[in-house]
Here is the input.
Amino acid sequence: MSSPLENNLFGLAVVSYLIAMVLYFVYTVRRREETGPAFLATALAFALQTAAMIVRTVAAGRLPFSNMYEFTSLFAWGVALVFLFIERRYAIKALGVFITPLIFALIGYASVLPKEITPLVPALQSYWLQIHVITAILAYGGFGVSFGVAVMYLLREKKEASAKAPGGFSQLLPGLKVLDALNYGAIAFAFPFMTLVLITGAIWAERAWGAYWSWDPKEVWALITWIIYAVYLHARYTYGWKGHRAAWMSITGFLAVLFTYFGVNLLLTGLHSYI
Amino acid sequence: MPEATKITCPQQVWKWLTSMQLNLFLLLIIAGLAVFGSVVPQGEEPAFYHQYYGPLRANLIQLFYLNNVYHSWWFFTLVFVLAASLLACSLNRLTPLWRQATTFQYRCEEESYSGAPIEGLAFSPKDAGETADGLFQRYRQRRYRVFLAEKQGRFYFYADRGRFGPFGSLVTHLSLVVIMLGAFYGGLTGFKSYANIPEGESFDIREAGFSVRLNDFHIDYYDDYMPKQYYSDLKVLNGDQEVMNKVVSVNNPLTYKGVTFYQTSYGWAVDGVLTNLGKETRFSSLDREAALVGDDLRIKTLFYPDYTSDASGYPRTRSPLPNNPRVVYVLYQGSKALKYDVAELGKPAKVNDNITVAFTGFRQYTGLQIARDPGIPIVYTGSALMVIGLLLSFYVFPRRIWAMVTPGPKGCRVLVAGAAPRFPDRLAEEIQELLEELQRGEKNEQSIRK
Here is the structure.
């Protein structure tokens, strides 16, 4: 079992993410632009979650990177990390309303998964595990943020098209140009890491399974995800697919991320049975 | 139609091959097919698909090779065309990119400024020479490559940074071609096989001309008997001579002359002797594998190291430790099962009037994947190139700035142009800042300090 200390820290982190999400919603409903406390709640939740992971690392004698609970929690952590960075640096209005539900959904799902510290099966005993997972977290974090931003873009666009009187919720959203640039920025940040996920996975697979590429469903779906974002980048440079189309492609890409992560495990069978 | 153009107009083929549409289309098609490959189980027997999908869908699956997507001829064709297209695109861009990175031209005509992606104009109260020198210092300080020339009192200025950034995309695309080549080469020249070797036995690798012997096998367990790690002490033999010795485990393979031995699985083997009408046949049988023990006799064994039976009488093992070893076996004559029983070691069991079976010992065997893939170094080189290419593409910000300083009655007139394909807005801001400083006639030192 995981230690009571870890469970308490993790529970507090879940509650803090929930508070952050509620605060962001309340501020949005009240049309308030100043969202400092919500940001602080997110940062606090992030710190608590990090502490829980440190406690677990100490208890397990290894980084908590190797089962569904650990990785789902890390996924939430990665999205929170990229979100906090962007929020602090660029202060994008209303971003939190769209990102905190995603973080909360991920960590909420993690919280119902079995938490015991399981020993590592032989295939996972490799330092490539750490490298592979860290790159995945950064990639997924960036893609998660780009997804939230793409949803914001489509909402704002819809509001602008309906040409209602100014005011209301869309007022809180940043301009379309800013959202589009941020969507691109998050993907441009994540894409090299996604490439590293594939490369480090291949090197590790060669050592552990005897082939760098086995067309395992997880590999295939990671490749499909990579291709979708590669097409996004090319369409942007060459055809100037910005704004509306880019937002939809970004959403499609993140759905592929989610399928790679959850769908492959639940629906398909393969070598990659740990996470 | 494409056939006709291929013959008559190679240029058109080239144009088609280097078009972005083709590349994106191919990528999406490949991704789409990969989806089928991940959903439809791959490489099963035809009967499986008939049973699972029904005759109509099973036939469709086989018609389009959806049961073996990644090794089908059309998948290869798509990947091949993609590689050719990527290569063609890269070759197409090589010369212009190289020229752009290694040469530059001052902009000497007023018109060439109004056509630039970013342009601006400022009047500085300072004289032309001082202003030009200020530009030179300012951009040198900002780690640009700077050039300044003077002709008939006019100053021409050029500066750039990150000029190799545009190669990032080229390197990335070429790296994909390298990876595909490596995979193709490895597939053509390599081999992959699988061997179960009991302790003390050797295995000949025909493809490589040497053999491997398992000296010893052991498993480290966690408290709940989950395997922590398993180890095969392997000896590589060239003829009778030992050439290499290494203990391999999962994630720690052995490589000899390009052939790699990967620890993949393990199991039990039992040794025994079968007596048929007074004739003894010794055998060694791996779990679940049938061993031939006479002209038409086969034996299948399953070893239980710590035997017990559950409530419904099925054999079980309490632990992986040999505390209570038993062998469950089936003896077949032709396709008929003669005997199914649980045997103790060392106790001969009578099958019928003619045949007795005795199990004499047990060993562990190791499951090794044995593979040679000469494409691996190429694939890894391609991967490294891809990382370099992406770093150049995403983390280098290429920008170029031109200026022309013309002396005027009260100072000078400065025309500025800029180009930054990745972040034009950022450079535009930077140039705006420069223009304002020029207009105010700030001292060089100030702008440098900033």
Q: What stands out?
A: The radius of gyration of chain A is 19 Å. Residues 4-267 of chain A form one domain. The mean pLDDT of chain A is 88. The CA atoms of residues 146 and 184 of chain A lie 7 Å apart.
